[in-house]
Amino acid sequence: MNKQTTYKNVVGLRCLRNIKKQTNDLYLVHCGQQKCPPGYTYDHKIPNEHHLHFVLDGKGVLIVHNKVHHIKKDDIFIIPKGVPIQYFADSEDPWEYIWVTFDGTVASNYLSYAGLSDSNPVITSAIPTKVYLPLVQKILDANELTYANEIKRVGYLFEILGILIEAQSALNRNKNQYDYSSDAYIDYAMQYISLNYDHIKVSDIAKYIGINRSYLTHIFKKNLNISPQKYLLNYRLKKAAELIRTTNMSIQDIAVKVGYENPLTFSKMFKQVYGVSPKHYRYQNS
């Protein structure tokens, strides 16, 4: 039998518990905001869900797998699903935090995208943790039992996780650490080139897929043994060669169509790759 959703608002603690399950992919169980008294200690039984905490102020200690983590303002920590833990507030500067507790088939994946797991339960937030406070408060404000509130609450949960993953990913990108494998970025770049080759630059490719130009160049050279600039050039000329063989378009029109305003520049680049001028290439393939 499901427990009834309860809302509590007392001095130092505001929370919403036993929230009705919304979806199997990701669903909210409870959330809240708490200003702990000095030395406040909590021993969790083995949790059935993920408990994500954002420290707004103060200090405390988290113990996971017998490892002690000293936590401060603007740190984020999880109480991992299925892992017994203990945590307590500092005796002189006790912490205040907000939390969201959730589960679902994608919950572990979303946490891992932010760099959180049972082996790495603490990270320093890339942005002030107070950014998340209004979203938790919106969940708490949506405490009345309505269909609209059920949708709003899970929407706010997605927004919290979206901001978290985006912020931590941006921090990693500054260290040239990206979300996806180099193969995935190359595939995405090649698809973008195939659709936009006639008017783009390498910087446009990098910006579109969300990595910097130097990293794009690095992975192209490492994986394809060619720079993205050379790949783009070859792709344009390959399309030009196809048009020369299969259409009656003028060489000048073909040059413009593949991204060259100056037909002389086009002819020069074409000859460098194919060994003959565009006109001669057409004659050879007529």
From TrEMBL:
* Alphabetized InterPro entries for the sequence: AraC-bd (IPR003313), Homeodomain-like_sf (IPR009057), HTH-like (IPR037923), HTH_AraC (IPR018060), HTH_AraC-typ_CS (IPR018062), RmlC-like_jellyroll (IPR014710), Tscrpt_reg_AraC-type_HTH (IPR020449)
Q: Which UniProt keywords apply?
A: DNA-binding, Transcription, Transcription regulation
Please indicate if the UniProt record lists Transcription as a keyword: yes
Mind listing the GO molecular function terms for this protein? DNA-binding transcription factor activity; sequence-specific DNA binding
User: Where is the HTH araC/xylS-type domain positioned along the sequence?
Assistant: 187-284
Q: Which domain of life is it from?
A: Bacteria
Does the record's keyword annotation contain DNA-binding? Answer: yes
For this protein, the record's PANTHER family field holds:
ARAC-FAMILY TRANSCRIPTIONAL REGULATOR, MMSAB OPERON REGULATORY PROTEIN
Name listed for the protein in its UniProt record = Helix-turn-helix domain-containing protein
